[in-house]
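Hi, does anyone understand the following?
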Amino acid sequence: MNRNEIEIGLFEAILSRANNSQTLADIAIEHHNKDYEGRGTGLVKQLIEYINKNKANQSTLSVPESETPLPPEDYFLKGLDHFFKGEYKKALPPFELALRKDSPVEDSMILNKIGACHIKLGNFDEADKILTQSIEANEKYPTGYYNFGILAKKQREELLSKGKYREANKRLGFAINLFELAIEKVDKINEDNKDDKKTNNKYEAVYSHNNIATSYKDIYLYNGDEKSLLRAIERLESLIKRNPNVEDHGLTYYNLACFYSLKKDYENAFRYLESSFKADIINVPDSMNDVDLYNIKTSKFEQYRTLIKKYLEEYIETIHKNVNNLLKRREIEKIKTFAIPELENNLVNRNIVNAETYHLLGNCYALLGNRKERNKYMSLYVKHMHEKLYD
């Protein structure tokens, strides 16, 4: 299952509703735990399977709270719906309503998501306060430490922009400590549940390890200390050796490619870069603008171009296939929330398009009744085809 299919399935799951309120609460608790930067694909797949098996009815989560009060766990799901759509300001009210005392969802989990929203909104002081409360509510909960680590890295960037380099470096050290604590908590959970096949928190540790590694890389870029870069490489290669079958290693491979590019070890850089493309196709367009890959793009341009061309076609085809399926089923809501953003943000805005991209966008807007946008993209489609014919 590729990333786009997973995300579509995720929204289906969040917008569905089991008849049994406690069952819904259990789903919320089990599957809310998407890392701030992570994708948690293993948990998402489990949730999709649950929905497919139970054929749950569509939720009334979009009904205003004042008109139709919902159980606290439903508010939590409503907050998740907004959160995963990137609507962080809209996510805050339902998350806050879910904090009612009778909610079966733990306060630490809800507070963590509220904190993540504030990080995304740039409200760092508020995020700091909320994430502190999340950890105080449950010191065993790993994601609170993880998100606090992310916040610390964001705060470092803010301090750097103000020229406060000493304070910024201290904040980066604080972030590393928080990620280490997240790993410690995850390892404890895994140890306590080693006989439970349903427990899968390994992906969390993957993202914490990667954030520690990229922090070491940042230290290298700041002071040129190659030992820091070697520490970053060692951490991620050790992670792969310990857990070779863990999902979400696409990020690990990608970061290793960046580190080896900085080190000018081109053989390993290309080896890990291709592995990252195979593991997660989204790494293909991301690599095109990544300055950490500057060395391989300049010193080994032809090799990089050949690799990109090979996987870029697959990336475009993957998006086109998903959009075509939505158009065939005439799923209006998903065309608005998935198809058009995927085509415009991930292809058109990155200038990695072909004629079919414009054709699909024209069809999407036609189905929505937006003639102006439909005509714009159909004109681009005709122009692109004309240029291709007479090139």
